[in-house]
Amino acid sequence: MATPSAGTYRIPYQSGTNVEVTRDHLSHEPPTRIDMHGVDGDEPYRIVAAADGVIRFLVDRFSEQRPDRTPCNNNYVWIEHDNGEWTKYSHMRHRSTSRDAGLAVGDRVRAGTFLGFEGAVGCAHGEHLHFEVGVPIDPDDPIDDDGFLRGGSARNRIPRICGISGQTFVDGETYRAASCTPVVIVPTVVSFGSVRPGTSSRRTVTVTNLSGRDMTLSLAASPAGSVFQWSGFSRRLHQGDATSIQVTFTPRSSAIERATLRLTSNAAGSPHTVGLVGKGVGGFPTPSEVSPAGGIRQEP
Ligand SMILES: [Zn+2]
Predict the structure, then answer these.
(1) Distances from the Cα of 298 to the Cα of 3, 181, 259, angstroms
(2) What is the C-alpha separation between 171 and 178, in angstroms, rounded?
(3) In percent, how much of the chain has pLDDT > 90?
(4) Which residues partner with 248 through β-bridges?
(5) Distance 270 CA to ligand 1 centre (A)
(6) Residue 297 has pLDDT above 80, yes or no
(7) Which strand (E) or helix (H) includes residue 288?
(8) Cα(184) to centroid of ligand 1, in Å?
(9) What 3-state class would DSSP assign to 258?
(10) Within 10 A of 253 (CB to CB), how many other CB atoms are there?
């Protein structure tokens, strides 16, 4: 029995595309690999990278659909990920990786980077994506001349997929492709630094919807009299759209001040929080020494 992947991967289709799994890790032959195809969304369906990584192999010169023939003459892309796992994307359309996506071997891609159009090139009975996660025996010689993982499905891992039940694809189910980070907030901590008491400093927070569907985003207005001020709102964001929030800080003293923006949405991870910190000029310490740690997650 294969083990689940170490990494968590996104559904490898453009966000918002509905994708039906027709062969899961149990029913696919050989096992532990996945077949899926777009069923609703913008056509031609766009295949995207399932995680950040580097393109190690790229074949897209073939154009013929030739099920059950040898050799398959598949088009495929293999991406190596930092965790040692590799992902494969097969049957994409002729030249759609090199020409339409403009990619080449050695290119670094992000989760969600366009790789090419869903196709039926090679050993395919219809338009679909063959997807798999594997750990090569030898990363310097991972695949054979036909693009297949050396060592066979014993080297495969069951893909763990974010945002779906049990993180596991199930035969016959339809899923909506989305980013693993459905709501991207930049920055996640806003530091105003030192501001002269009685004057105001303004910062902008940007929120992007990568959930794959329309999102309703709401924020209650700042409390009356707070040194941090922002406007409340409730707005609808389409997949891929961003909105900005202006926050002003008007210190009254040299004290260190903190607050939290609490955004609510219908996306996973709600409420989404943003830390605010600042202080008035004078006194000790400076805000940079007391700012909470905060990372910025971003995805194209
Ligand atoms: Zn397959």
Answers:
(1) 29, 8, 23
(2) 19
(3) 89
(4) 202, 229
(5) 36
(6) no
(7) helix 287-290
(8) 32
(9) strand
(10) 14
Whether 285 shows a pLDDT value over 90: the answer reads no
3-class DSSP state for residue 290?
A: helix
Amino acid sitting at position 29: E
How much helix, strand and coil, in percent to the nearest 5, is found in the chain?
Answer: 5, 40, 55
pLDDT at 79 > cutoff 70: yes
Distance 246 CA to ligand 1 centre (A): 48
Nearest alpha-carbon partner for 77 in 54, 45, 100, 44 = 54
> Tokens standing for 237?
């964001």
The pLDDT tens digits of the residues spanning 33-73 come to: 999 999 997 889 999 999 999 999 999 999 999 999 999 99
Q: Give the separation between CA 183 and CA 99, rounded to whole angstroms.
A: 31
Q: 167 φ, ψ to 5°?
A: 60, 20
Q: Which long-range contacts (CB under 8 A, 24 or more apart) does 70-76 make?
A: 71/146, 72/122, 72/123, 72/146, 73/121, 73/122, 74/121, 74/122, 74/123, 74/124, 74/146, 74/147, 75/116, 75/119, 75/121, 75/122, 76/122, 76/147
Q: Contact, 254 vs 282, CB < 8 A?
A: yes
Give CA–CA dist 173/30, Å, rounded.
Answer: 20
- For residue 164, the Cα-to-chain-centroid distance in whole angstroms is 14
67: tokens are: 């099920």
Give residues whose Cβ lies within 5 Å of ion ligand 1: 35, 130
Please tell me the predicted confidence (pLDDT) of residue 269.
84
> What value does the mean pLDDT take over residues 170-194?
95
